[in-house]
Amino acid sequence: MYRTLFFIIGLIILTFGVSLTIKADLGAGAWDALNVGLSTEIGLTIGSWVIIVGLFLMLMNAYLLRTKPEYLALLTIMIVGALIDFWMLVILKNFHLETLLLQIIVLVVGMVTVGLGAAIYLQPKYPLIPIDQFMLALKYRLKVNLMIAKTVAEIIALILALLVKGPIGIGTLIITFCMGPCIQVFYPYFEKWLNKLIKEA
């Protein structure tokens, strides 16, 4: 019960943070920029592209790891896609930022929110979002450390985002380099909290 609660709450917070970084309009994270670019250039909602790209990555991960696709991850990306559309099309639909200062504040708040959400959603060890699994698959296939694998994955997403004219900017660089440390700040706290709840249950 607690694991499922952490998973759902984490994804709700994470997707709200992602939506804020997109709305800040200073450059989204590489994968988010790819989804926004695809939505703008081809059509469909951003959340729909989260699901489509996630499905493609799920199959790619299975190929790289020489395993069967992790079908439960499909549930994760469907939840993420639906939540991003909810935040973007319902809650933040008329959310406009008039000044650069407000854009910067919303970008930072969004990034911290993503870090918080990720730190919570990762605790139950449920199927990862395919983007996170892709990083681990690259680590395995290229026989490199996690930091290099993450960098390679981000560069691939960045190139694809540029090809579809996704929102790449200074915010993209800030998110790329600050997201890891941001997650790490929150992760130990929620790890202890979940373990405590499980022991007391």
UniProtKB/TrEMBL annotation:
Upper classification of the source organism reads:
Bacteria, Bacillati, Bacillota, Bacilli, Bacillales
**Mind listing the UniProt keywords for this protein, alphabetically?**
Membrane, Transmembrane, Transmembrane helix
- Organism in which the protein naturally occurs: Robertmurraya mangrovi
What's the protein called, per UniProt?
Answer: Membrane protein
The transmembrane residues are: 45-64, 71-92, 104-123, 144-164, 170-190
What Pfam families does the entry give? DUF6198
Q: Does the keyword Transmembrane helix apply?
A: yes
